[in-house]
Each structure stands twice: as C-alpha cells, then as structure tokens.
Amino acid sequence: MALSEVDRLIQLLARLPGLGPRSARRAVLHLIKRREALLDPLARAMADVAVSIRTCSTCGNIDTVDPCAICRDEKRDRSVICVVEDVADLWAIERTSSYPGQYHVLGGTLSALDGVGPEDLRIDRLVGRTSAAEVSEVILATNATVEGQTTAHYISDRLAGTGVTVSRLAHGVPVGGELDYLDDGTLTAALKSRRRLGATE
Amino acid sequence: MALSEVDRLIQLLARLPGLGPRSARRAVLHLIKRREALLDPLARAMADVAVSIRTCSTCGNIDTVDPCAICRDEKRDRSVICVVEDVADLWAIERTSSYPGQYHVLGGTLSALDGVGPEDLRIDRLVGRTSAAEVSEVILATNATVEGQTTAHYISDRLAGTGVTVSRLAHGVPVGGELDYLDDGTLTAALKSRRRLGATE
To answer: Which of B137, B180, B139, B182 is nearest to B162 (CA)?
Structure first.
C-alpha cells in the first residue's frame, strides 16, 4: 500500500503509553503539517537518543555518559544512596532539587507473579556499592505498593549487619491534601508518625 | 546539561496533541527501554515520512506519490468528489470502505476570526476540478460545525450554475445512539429528514 510509511509511523506511535490508534493518527497528521518545526527535529532527537543513551553501570540511571552525570558529580553527597524502582522515580526526586546524594535504580520490583527475582534487579550491585566505606545511609524510595514494600523489605534484610543505616520515605498527608479525601492507610500512617509541634525539624 | 538529548526529546514529544510533559517523560522512558523494538524503528519511520511524504497536487491528500494513490486509482469513480476539511476526515471516510469516489481536501475551513479566506483553502482548485466533464457530483463532507457549514455554503454558492450536483452528508441519529442522550439540533434534523419505512434505500 502506498501509505505504508505513514501507517507504519502511526502503528509505532500507537505503542507509546498514553497514545492509542486514534491519537497516534492525530499526532502523525500534526507532525506532517509541521515537518520542519516538529517532524524533522523529532526524528533527529530520537536518532540522537538511540545512538547516545546508555545505562550507568554504577547506578542504573540513563545518560549519554557512563558513569552518569549524577555519579560523576563531585559536589553530590556520596554517603547516601537513594534506591528507586525506575528512572522515572529518579527524575521525580531530582525535580524536587531537595536530594543531594547518589541514586541506585533497581529496574523494577520483586514480583513472584511476574517471575522477577532478586537476580533480575540491580540488588547485588547495590549491596556491592554499600560496602564502600563512604556510604553511611541507604534510603529505600520504592513505591508504596505491595511490590515496592516487598522489595524494600528484601533489600533491608540484605543490608542488615552491614552497619549502613537503612531508611524509608515518610508516609503521611500529602502537602495540600485534605483529610476527608485521604485513604485510611495513609491517614493511619500519618497519625502513627505524628510529630510534636515545636520539635526540631 | 548532560541529559540534554533526552530533555530535548521529551520537549518535542510533549508538543504532540494528546501528550503533555508528564506523558512525554513516560513515553521517552518507554522508548529508551525498548530501543531496538521501538525507538530505532520510530526514529527511522519519522525520517522516512519526513523525506517521502508529499501533498497531492490534485486533491490535497498526503501520500508518498503525487498524484496520490486515490487520485491514481483507475478503479475509483471519477464522477464524484467528496470535499473534506482535513486529511483526518479523508482517512475516516476511507476506513468505512463505503465511498468509491475521489476526494478534495480543503486544508481547513473559512474563518473570519482566524483570518482564513477562500484563497487560503483549496477552493479554486476544487472549482477547477469540477469543470471536468466527468465530474457530476460534489459531496460536501465538512464538519457539522459553524465553520464547516459556512465553508460548505460558500462552496455550494461557487458551484451554483456549473451543472454539478452538490450534496451534504445526512444529519441524523448516530447508529447505536440513544435519543435521550442526543442534542436537540441532531434530533430536530433527524425528525426533519425522517424516511418512510419501506421506501427505497
């Protein structure tokens, strides 16, 4: 068929999360109308990323250099490692500009159902990193899901006895959140972890 | 910044309709994880489309050849031209496999607000095409919006006196539609255009 290039592009775009066949068609027409402004740059940006992107052999982050910019950055605190499931979580924490330490990207969570065991995640590498003298704390920032919690539990067991402090992100009321709309689990956790007013931050 | 290639890709993807910064980030991570299966083919498909796509000088459709495959197809009825606003509308009609004729893509609608006049659309070209002896009917399949209707009106005026039959898509109850959920305008149109049962299709 003559339109095969366009059809192929629609099919590929439809496989992106958040896009279906209908929105992929709209996106492709949008691209074709803006060939110079959008289609050409996008094709080039994708090719650039495909060629240049690599996984950091230290932390599992993605970057154009290995080790990644965060692992290379001399100004970042090398005594703390924040363990996240995915690069998206690393990006989310980086966007807060409130964490000065290192990261470790697991590449998923333990899942008996999906057959994901410890050997499928970057856990051995994490244990290896924590044995360095400079590391004093590991923050487990896996998601607050069953799999995330299970994975955090497993890692905390693995790190027991190494002398490294293992911590978890705090549970509680989201900033700006209304109690009435909060689930019971979060509210219970927020109550349990309540802090005395006037206590040191 | 070291991640600039990835950031640039996110920014470009976020400009697609239906994607925002958040879904663009997710899409890029999805792409990077599936480099061979998705990112490489997508980069190539975009480059292919950017190089090969052109607008049909006859009907305004997009294709890799000019005239487009529909205009070239000897098996299609050359006596009917279906006028649509956009290539997406042409695709929508083609998907029904129920229209055997030619198309004419206007490239938009008349709009005083946006400063779109008849000279900005492919209307002169349409009038030129209808002067061919073989053309007997023009179907105005512009959208049922104010702009679409205005444009249809204008074209029908332009074609008055040429001897070509000018028709509009029927208004009515969508197939599978429930009256209770239908807007008044559609229901009124469906009532006005009611057909006697047992009449010839």
So the answer is: B137
